Amino acid sequence: MRCVAGVALLLVAFAPVARAAGDGERGRELYETRCIACHSIDANRIGPRHRGLIGRRAGSVAGFDYSPALRAAELVWNDATLDRWLADPEATIPGQKMNYRVADARDRADLIAYLATAR
Description:
This protein is mainly alpha-helical. Helices cover 47% and strands 0% of the residues. The chain is built from six helices and no strands.
């Protein structure tokens, strides 16, 4: 029984994170009105580019000047980590530079659904 339980735990630990049940089209609209001042899908601006964000380690876009806190973070972006980050970046990675929060859970899910399309 112990082996079966261990295998089940491994399967849960390594299973892909379920995709947020967000609306990617609405997320694109939110991105263009809320995020575009600092971010772009394909270019580093005040914030780093977002293409390929899902599955990428935080603080790892080449050529972007991250805060020491974000460079040292051992966080990989997925639905859950992005949801936490968008809700409260400072609580997620203390010492980071992003001063913007997305309080509404539906808005966060929609933004994450959109970001997942930018592979």
